[in-house]
Amino acid sequence: MATTKLGFIVQRPGYKSENPKLALTHAIASQSVEIYLNEGDLVTADIAFIGEGVLNCKKDQKAMETYDLSSTESHIKMALLLDLNVLVCREDLERYGMTENDIVIDAEEFGADMTVKVVPYAEITKMMEEMNHLLFF
Amino acid sequence: MGKLTIGCFASLVGSLNLDFAVKLSAAAMEKGHKVDLWVSGNGTMISIEEQRPFKDYSSLEKPLKELMDKGLNVTACEACAEARGYHDSNTLKGVKRFSMDWYLGSTFDADRVLHIGGE
What we know:
The structure holds two protein chains of two kinds.
Chain A: E1 3-10, H1 19-28, E2 42-49, H2 63-67, H3 72-81, E3 85-89, H4 90-95, E4 117-119, H5 121-130, E5 133-136
Parallel strand pairs in A: 1-2, 1-5, 2-3, 3-4
Chain B: E1 3-8, H1 17-30, E2 34-39, H2 61-69, E3 73-77, H3 78-83, E4 96-98, H4 101-108, E5 112-116
Parallel strand pairs in B: 1-2, 1-5, 2-3, 3-4
């Protein structure tokens, strides 16, 4: 039994490119990776939004109305529902004049227990050090 | 010898990141390493057959075929490909198509993972 830990680091803003959403869909795919692994082996996914990437976490996104697309916000909520660890850099949020009140924090409507954690960058660095591999989006 | 998993999300035309990924795969294989190449997003463009080579655009069908003959394992994200109109029927022979969990599965026993994001 072994575990490979992947860190998904999102540093690009949403909707400008496909990257942030692909980060989330790939991280969510960690929930079905077992079909490629031996019994007991795991691949886990932690997600961190840093730099311009924190803009992906803005709540009340109108992606469906604007682009006819599911929103990045809904993907973050799905990640929470699947118990993925989602971190947002506090300093980068503050750079954009944003607080926890401006971003998606939970997915209670889906029944998720996990919440987004707004943390200092130092804590994101610590998470990255604990990962086996880092994937930057 | 080790295993390298490369994920590339950049397009075949409009970026040279896929060229880099394929050349790096070749270099790693020459040194005896096993390489898994995952293409997602616009990177799935590399999976289409009958690419017409022009001197002004990247053309990777020929080197990719040669590398697959030598054991390069290439898999395209099925949803990303289908969204772009790249179907099983026009996929380059030898390129596999799976969902995103294949990439994560490949990272499990990889010695190194090199993730090259999109544009």
